[in-house]
## 1
Amino acid sequence: MQLKTNNLKSIINQKVWGILVLLCIGMQMNAQETQVEVQDTIPQEEVKEEEPVVETKPFQRRKIDGVAAVIGEHVLLDSDIDIAYEQLKSEGISVADVSRCQLAGSLFENKLYAHHAVQDSIIISNAEVDSRVDQQISVMTQQLGTTEKVLKFYKKDNLVEFREELFEINKSNLLSDRMRSKIVEEVEITPEEVRQYFDEIPKDSLPQFGTELELAQIIIEPKIPEEKVKEVLDRLNTYRTDVLENGASFATKAVLYTQDFGSRSSGGKYTLKRTDPYVKEFKDAAFSLQEGEISEPFKSEFGYHILTVDKIRGQEVDVRHILLKPEPTTETINEAKKLIDSIRARVVAGDLKFQEAAREFSDEKETKEDGGQLINPTTGDTRFELTKIDPILYDQVSKLKTNEVSLVIPDEDRQGRKKFKIITVLDRHDEHIADYAKDYSKIQELALRKKQIRAIEKWQDEKIKDTYIKINGEYKNCDYSGNWLKKEK
């Protein structure tokens, strides 16, 4: 279950940030077994002529086997780059045009960010890292079946060792991410800079924007009968009573009964602080209880919960919860289908405008008041570029004309509950060369991104000069975008 709400603001795309953390575990094991190259020197004192000169054997340089680079306090191994390649392949990304030098340079950047995040006192709490590790292990267990299978698949002897390695990887990644965000958080773009950016683009090189659609939808959800809600509340109260009065294990009950499959294997556990974007009802329950207390059943958009607090650490709490979702009946599902059929018929016949129908009937509260209009989660505006649209949504709308209404589409929400929807195209913007007036928001985004990249490049150039960096082996011969070899300019 995704208890966290979606964050639609993204700072900047990272070159190679999609490398799956799980396959990077080898980094930690190898790094512990690798010696860092050191050239030891002894200052020679001035020798008097009358004193015998004792010839000393100079210290030998020790070759580091498998170390690609040392960035600050971080070691990057050859095997790390191999793993990164394999991960890109596993995600279906073509590596035909990705050289080892390019990939190494991107990994150097990540290490540099993480190193200076520590120098800049960016704090990542252990609880935050533990929470991410818990969720990762939960997902792995769900995919492979048992914890034992997970350990076998990743060739780990025990869960403690596995968690420690995941902890270090996640902490490094979080530090790097926060450092990137800090670099660009104050970068802003003025209308004058947007105009200048656009005017500097050669006319024959102006970006071309693909066909874009503005969409609206009406969602009808089957009603859940009161008796189904009562059944769920009775079950939750039974679990609560058994824990409080009979000493039963809350964690065990979560493993057995919760319908939050993301936390089931960890006994319903989450770690959160007040600023985390969890749904309000969940946070209210988490921060209103003392250690060992169990909430009364409460409702959220995900269903009905009971929650207990395991540990309070200042502004952070470790909680466990059990989630149950009451289900609609066959009868209420059929009623919902009949309702949306009738709404569509009235809209198609012209008896009711689509936007008016959405405001009156739609069960989707996020779009209801805006007449069902959808917001693109990637850009934050109302346009969806047809070539980049979700494949399922593409199939549903690509052939629709403006103001045409789709057939009734069976669907499911993110909790797996059935619903029905109809979609219409409010407006269509055909493929065209960028126009300053019509496409200002997109041009503004491109200009801001360019300015953010320049800010990062400037920061990187400055920090490379101030950071201990040692590049080894074949990576000395690479032509990097950054001055990783510290050559004189």
## 2
Amino acid sequence: MLCSKLRGSRYICLLLTLSVLCCSFWLTPFTAYATLEELEAEAEARKSLPVQTNDIDNWPVGPAISAESAILMDANTGVILYAKNIHKKSYPASTTKILTCLIAMERGNLDDMVTFSHDAVFSLPPRSSNMGMDEGESITLEQCLYGILVGSANEVANAVGEHISGSIDDFVADMNKRAEELGCTDSHFMNTNGLPDDDHYTTVYDLALISSAFFQNEMLCKIDNTARYHFEPTATQPDDFILKNKHQMITGEIAYEGVVGGKTGYTDAARQTLVTCVERNGMKLICVVFKEESPAQFTDTVELFDYGFNNFQVMNISENEDKYQIEPSDFLRTGNDIFGSSKPILSIDSDSYVIIPNTITFHDLDSDIDYSISDESRIAQIRYSYHDTYVGSAYLDLASDTASTYEFNTNTETTDVSVERTEPEPSHSTTIFINVKKVLIGILLFAGIAILLLVVRAFIVNNRNARRRQNRVKRKQNRKERIRSDFDDFDF
């Protein structure tokens, strides 16, 4: 892309560049570029490349797209819904800048002033994407992020790298370190912006991991999801110009509900590359496609999002899991309120979920539990899979106590009375309380049952005694009657 703004100091550079290009055209051998028909034939051939997720039993069949590699991943869980050559090393082009901006946001301040050095501006090849910054000019780091994400400005990525790490080389080293921390195993970065380099590569899987961290940051999402950004003149940057985003799902050229952000990329070697994030139906999906031909990078991305949102569902784990549910004794619970507001000692965290095909249920999943968890507040992690495909996980949490503070607002008129409250020393151990309310209810129930039993017993005993008295009376009456009958036989 030609500079969007030119100044007098750069006219000479432009003329020299044009002269060099003309000389190169006539003095170097002619390089054959692929024709449009050849590119279309290659794209059509890529549709027949295998889609690995289609090999999973009872998994929704994914679309045949012309990208050489593609992935559809949930940003929060890491669940992969669609996979096509996701570990193939490829050139990412300007989608590299997602990592550049992630590190800048993590380590810089948005109000920082970033000054453009000679190397940041003039180390770029001719015609590379830029927004025409000059050596010595300064803008804020926030404006730099707009310049990188909206305008894909290469010189701005260089300047940010120098500002954050001291030099471009040191920043590139930080990029590789941060990528490794995020779980990337098939990536190597050589510059801040994705310009062509044989040793600058990544995979759609690794870039999806990087993008997952990127799209967790609200400010980065806000900047990244901007269609147009207006730069106004300042004391350190004298020009007035507007940057326009090239991502058609951000600009609205392709309307799609729930777009969070994304980044385009292109070089002759990488072809079209695209990263997009969409949030809908409880899922925050990231789609990455490499090596496409325009406009298929957008249409294939839309098709993959439709595939994900139409064929998969979110299920909360704690609401559906019964295999690992912990049922503590009613009298042994943890918490600070001894009158019934305490919590179970162990519980499955309530925010975790699985993403599964619409055609199956939660009980179709396999699960295993891992106790090698370093977090003191967690006992284990439960991982769920479907035909050996990971679909989500949850933690088995140990309930933690929070200190209760009881404040009494006494509206006294006395001024010479002071009350000092001594705070208890913090304890790192979990305290187990007896739930007095339930204990009292239990005692009352037990006493009621005991009294009822005593009443029943007394009733039974009384019945028996009454019968005995009746029997004795009858026996006496019978004896008297026999005596009378005996006397009747004698004549006195």
## 3
Amino acid sequence: MLTLDKVYHASYVLKDVIRQTDLIYAPKINSECEVYLKTENLQITGSFKVRGAYYKISQLSDDEKARGVIACSAGNHAQGVALAAAKNGIKSLICLPDGAPISKVEATKGYGADVCLVEGVYDDAYNKAIELRDEKGYTFIHPFDDENVIAGQGTIGLEILEQLADVDAIVVPVGGGGLISGVAFAVKHLNPSVKVYGVQASGAPSMAVSLEKGEIQCLDSVSTIADGIKVKEPGEHTFECCREYVDEIVTVTDDEISSAILALIEQHKLISEGAGAVSVAAVMFGKVPVKGKKVVCLVSGGNIDVTILSRVIKRGLLKSGRSDSINIELMDKPGQLRDVSRIIADLGGNVVAIHHERASENSDIIGCYLRIVLETRNFEHKIAIRKALADAGFSIVE
């Protein structure tokens, strides 16, 4: 059974293995509440997952260790298992979905694990791992639906209460539910008045849908940039924990996640992966009722692929009003580009790209199109530039 004693035992086992991550004050995330960031993105392996993986492996019998361990993961659990197995002198095999970021695949190999790439998403990797477990006799380390794994993740709840004793609410990313189950279990047993909110990507709301329906649901498909929480079906243990201890689960869009990643980079110099930033997105965009409260956003991981990061930053700039793309229909005569440029410059916009096209089949025979990409301060700035262009007689094509 999952008990508070087990969470404390996990904390004891992990004290010389993991890092007690900092709690950072983040005043710009939401001006209506007092926000703190629990920086598990700065944990060893770059994610909270090492806590549950290491504690689970530490509790295996000698026979279970001798058979070697197998796990399935979207990437972060893989690294936690690989590291824990290596520290305990155990062979490990990790099944990863073939769409997992290259950085996570290579990091898993770097910790000493063998990797099996499986076509599909996390749930397909899970099925392959179970198949290999049955075939080869490996000991399976579940990424979330295991009481020792949940106890390991629950140590974060203990740390938060030590670091901010008067916390009002904790906002936690949710995929399969292991992290929020551990945090909510520990926190609610020690201080039942603290609210615990879960956040899922709107493209992978498996736990939210399951709780709404009152029973575990398996989604037909999932799609989100937050690969760490892209899970079709929650676990049995985690579903019951969430039903009993979690106050509410909300969802955020990929655009909102991108904006949160950008805010963490600019405001706090922190790199978060999509799954890690969903808690911040929920508070930024008012998805959870934390006005006037002391709230901790759990930033669960920082293992984002750099190729994805560049695209996410671009989306985040667009979503937060920091970038704009304007299409203008012009008469093809001297001075038009100069006049457009002067208006943008006078209002403080910064042009970063420009494309001039003549003779479109939909334009006037002496007309042309001008496409401008520019950096802006916020949505109000975008609106002001567009209005100034329109007031000067330029036709903006949406």
